[in-house]
Amino acid sequence: MRPSRRAAEGQITNPLREQVFRELEQPPKSVRVEDMETNAFASLPRAELVPSSQLRQRNAFWVSRAEEVRQESRRLCQHSRALQARYQSWRQHYDLIACAWCAKPIRWQYLEEPWAVPATSHGICPTCFATEWRALGLRAS
Question: 1: closest CA among 27, 19, 24?
């Protein structure tokens, strides 16, 4: 057995993948219709025969279910757009204050005049302040 191109390149190979590549490299087998054993006139087993009315009912059910799913998807998309618009409007009136050390949100600050682009300001949270205070060797009062 000769190594595959991928194995020769040093890549990790999967045995199933190798088998598939080997089969793809081989030319397809040709089969004559005369050589095939067929019985076109054989009847199907009774369990596989389904009345067409049942098929129509199942088809109608899945068509209606697909329409319900489409409507729900449209409703959720509209709701998502409304929430995004409301958030953008709200975000223009508030400024996020985040800790410059740990990036944890500290608070929101109301702005009298809305900004076109939402901004984030930085401060220091109480935990980071205490840590930095101790690191400087100062005593908290």
Answer: 19
